[in-house]
Design brief:
Layout: H1 2-25, E1 29-33, E2 45-46, E3 48-51, E4 57-64, E5 68-71, E6 74-76, E7 80-87, E8 93-99, E9 113-123, E10 129-137, E11 140-148, E12 154-159, E13 167-170, E14 176-182, E15 186-193, E16 198-207, E17 215-222, E18 225-233, E19 238-245, E20 251-259, E21 269-276, E22 282-288, E23 295-300, E24 306-313, E25 321-329, E26 335-341, E27 347-352, E28 358-365, E29 372-376, E30 379-385, E31 388-389, E32 392-393, E33 395-401, E34 414-416, E35 422-425, E36 428-432, E37 435-439, E38 470-477, E39 482-488, E40 495-498, E41 501-502, E42 505-511, E43 517-522, H2 526-529, E44 535-541, E45 551-554
Parallel strand pairs: 2-33
Antiparallel strand pairs: 1-33, 3-4, 4-7, 5-6, 7-8, 9-10, 10-11, 11-12, 13-14, 14-15, 15-16, 16-37, 17-18, 18-19, 19-20, 20-36, 21-22, 22-23, 23-24, 24-35, 25-26, 26-27, 27-28, 28-34, 29-30, 30-33, 31-32, 38-39, 39-43, 40-41, 40-44, 42-43, 44-45
């Protein structure tokens, strides 16, 4: 009898202990970051956050959009700022920076530089990280990367000549898969190796009918493969495709989808978000086309076959409500969806079980609802804009909630649980597609063109004045061994330094039609200064003393 009581006490104590552990592990906190924490920068706003391997968060976004005096001599306007900050694992701000670009701070063929978007963060797992940026340069797209250390110092900035603009997703081996667009009509895929700090492969795809695959809309890892969802839009239609690629970039399978509902829904899918499920399949959440016509969610198996599909709409606001912002699987095999209401700018957390049945809705009243949702332990972490002042976004929010959507008591947004959603069946017709490689591999692990950090090309125009030289690429020439440097603003009489030491002799080759300058570096001791496998810093210094940032080169 006594033994039984002791056993009961032990069981109760164990339950109490596990309850405490569960409650302590579900750490709920809330942070709002204002402009005073961003050095009084203009139009400050954060909406995206990223979890680093050390438990810290990176906040990053684009801003700007108005005119002001940069200093007493420079008045600049009509461009976007890049904001980057790092917090500790509890959301406390460590540092914050903003970078700027304008026509007066760029090379001639990048005048009227326009919109940037932050597309992802690459965690180098050594305290440094890379912020990947999409930019619209005149009439073309490009990808840019900014490398920061753990104190917020900008180590380098680089830009691609290709239209590889896209989403970064961490792979099971802690490297990164990057997907983007190629010339606005097909899609590009690349694998980034953290240890090598460069691409190991990249490929481009269209389908066999030479119809553009379209813009990527979401990516996730499934059984060590990359699953990508695309949406191709023209004047009167939207086509959605889903494709799986192995770790070498080869196609595994592909599916296409059309919505069979009649007009006014225009029978197409648009703005899809995707996440994997623990059973090997995945979920897709999307709005219909046009955007204000409701939303739907689909569950698919590992080969892209539809298991179930549901329509999701708000009974009181059928034309203002769409699910749009993000989706993540829960421990019970269902999903939590983060949405935005188009007119009110508020949003909801929506819980849907593994069979597509709506379980609960939690509503939040914010000027604009979240842009990032992911899991950190037992918690969900969301980041969003903090609000508006006129047409200008202000501030940022980082919010940690429990797995059931419970939020901190001191959270200032107006939360309520009285939102109502309905779900009905929809009919999505699958279409088999076949993709094929369209372009050869443009990024090589070894070869004459050196890919360092994010891409092959470096430009100083993002944060440097137009008088500064900047190295874009370095190419090895043989017989005899030389280096050909291409960049901005190389001047006659410039010198080349390797790890801070002047080396070789420089032959000035002049400018090409894009105003890029070229020089050739030669010298009997050049090979000794570039030992194989060793990473070195190469800089160009003009006669006036202006110098480029390091271009990190490995022979």
């Amino acid at each position: 009898m006594k033994t039984a009581k002791i056993s009961q006490i032990i069981i109760l104590a164990t339950i109490a202990f596990l309850f405490c552990v569960k409650n302590f592990s579900e750490e709920k906190w809330f942070h709002a970051y204002d402009e005073s924490q961003m050095l009084d920068s203009p139009n400050f706003a954060f909406s995206h956050s990223y979890l680093l391997s050390n438990g810290n968060y990176v906040l990053a976004d684009a801003g700007g959009f108005d005119c002001f005096w940069l200093n007493k001599d420079a008045y600049v306007c009509d461009y976007w700022f890049i904001y980057v900050a790092e917090t500790d694992k509890h959301g406390n701000l460590k540092w914050a920076k903003y970078l700027y670009n304008s026509a007066s701070f760029g090379p001639p063929d990048y005048l009227n530089t326009g919109v940037y978007n932050v597309e992802g963060v690459i965690d180098n797992k050594d305290g440094t990280f890379i912020v990947v940026i999409k930019g619209v340069m005149v009439n073309s797209l490009s990808a840019c990367s900014l490398l920061f250390d753990d104190r917020g110092n900008l180590i380098s900035q680089k830009i691609t000549d290709y239209d590889l603009v896209g989403e970064c997703i961490k792979t099971p081996d802690d490297n990164y898969f990057i997907v983007g667009n190629y010339s606005l009509n097909s899609s590009a895929f690349a694998k980034y190796d953290v240890s090598l700090k460069k691409f190991v492969w990249a490929t481009y795809f269209i389908d066999d009918a030479h119809i553009p695959v379209g813009k990527w809309k979401g990516t996730f890892i499934q059984n060590n493969n990359f699953v990508v969802i695309f949406s191709y839009e023209d004047s009167d239609s939207v086509r959605t495709a889903l494709a799986s690629f192995n770790k070498e970039g080869e196609l595994v399978w592909a599916k296409g989808f059309n919505n069979s509902m009649p007009p006014p829904y225009l029978d197409y899918l648009m703005e899809p978000f995707i996440c994997s499920s623990s059973d090997g399949g995945f979920f897709i959440i999307s709005c219909k086309f046009p955007r204000h016509e409701g939303a739907f969610i689909m569950k698919l198996d590992a080969e892209g076959n539809i298991i179930w599909q549901r329509n999701v709409s708000h009974p009181s606001y059928p034309f203002e409500y769409y699910v749009y912002r993000g989706i993540i699987e829960t421990e019970d095999g269902g999903v939590i969806v983060m949405d935005q209401q188009q007119e009110s700018m508020g949003g909801n957390f929506i819980k849907i079980d593994k069979d597509g049945i709506l379980k609960w809705v939690k509503e939040v009243d914010l000027d604009e609802w979240g842009n990032s949702i992911y899991r950190n332990g037992d918690n969900l972490v969301i980041s969003t804009y903090g609000g508006y002042e006129g047409f200008t976004r202000r501030g940022g929010i980082l919010l940690s909630l429990s797995s059931e959507g419970d939020y901190p008591e001191n959270c200032y947004p107006d939360w309520s649980d009285d939102a109502e959603l309905i779900s009905t069946n929809v009919s999505i017709t699958p279409l088999d597609l076949t993709f094929s490689k369209y372009f050869p591999n443009n990024f090589e692990a070894d070869g004459d063109f050196v890919a360092v950090d994010y891409a092959n090309y470096l430009s100083d125009w993002l944060v440097c004045g137009d008088k500064f030289p900047g190295i874009i690429s370095i190419q090895k020439l043989s017989s005899p061994f030389r280096l050909k440097l291409t960049g901005w603003n190389f001047e006659k009489g410039c010198k080349v330094y390797i790890n801070g030491e002047k080396v070789g002799s420089v032959e000035y080759k002049g400018k090409d039609k894009t105003n890029r300058t070229k020089i050739v570096l030669s010298g009997s001791n050049l090979k000794k200064k570039l030992p194989k496998g060793e990473r070195v810093c190469i800089q160009v210094i003009n006669p006036d003393g202006n110098q480029s940032d390091c271009f990190y080169f490995t022979r």
